[in-house]
Amino acid sequence: MEHPLEKFAYCPVCGSKRFVVHNFKSKQCEDCGFTYYANPCSATAAFILNERQELLVVRRAKEPAKGTLDLPGGFCDMGETVEEGMLREIKEETGLDVENIQYLFSSPNVYQYSGMGVHTLDMDYLVRVPNDVTVRAADDAAECLWIPLDEVNPADFGLTSIRNAVIRFLEEKPLL
């Protein structure tokens, strides 16, 4: 497996080319001594259920996995909590303003973006909404769909991490 900082050839502090692997998650400059650690980015995904026990999914509008199913969610921004990031992503992708989210579980992931593996820590949440909410696809969601839980097929989810989260959710049925 490629080192998480393989694409970083120069020290970001002094510009030296002697920016070498220090350990499995860091590189260190042999000239100025700066050490940079590749820590995971925070990411979120929402299992949004209505009262009919239908799951709200979105169709991805962009690569990677364009056209496949996904859960509303994404990367957290700097300066926001994971919860704030989850609420923002739900609003951006579905138009829903939700207040109550319940933490379910987390899992490590490597998200391929711009030819690079971005290590993430994905945090999954349960969100309950009434049947009469109005959703609209926006941002990087091409379409919003309600699927009865017993008809959800993990193979329809194009991102491995989301597919694995869906499998875990369906097997464990947490808080249902």
Query: How do the SSEs run, as a string of H and E?
Result: EEEEEEEHEEEH
Class by SSE composition:
mainly beta
Number of strands: 10
Q: How much strand content do the residues show?
A: 35-45%
Q: Which of globular, elongated, flat, extended, rod-shaped describes the shape?
A: elongated
Main β-sheet description:
7 strands, mixed
How are the elements arranged and paired?
Elements: E1 19-23, E2 26-29, E3 35-37, E4 41-49, E5 54-60, E6 69-70, E7 73-75, H1 82-94, E8 101-113, E9 116-128, E10 141-148, H2 160-172
Parallel strand pairs: 4-9
Antiparallel strand pairs: 1-2, 2-3, 4-5, 4-7, 5-6, 5-10, 8-9
Account of the 3D structure:
By secondary structure, the chain is mainly beta. The protein is 15% helix and 38% strand. It has helices spanning 82-94, 160-172; strands spanning 19-23, 26-29, 35-37, 41-49, 54-60, 69-70, 73-75, 101-113, 116-128, 141-148. Strands 4, 5, 6, 7, 8, 9 and 10 form a 7-stranded mixed β-sheet that branches. Strands 1-2-3 form a 3-stranded antiparallel β-sheet, with no helix packed on it. The termini are far apart. The model has no long low-confidence stretch (mean pLDDT 94).
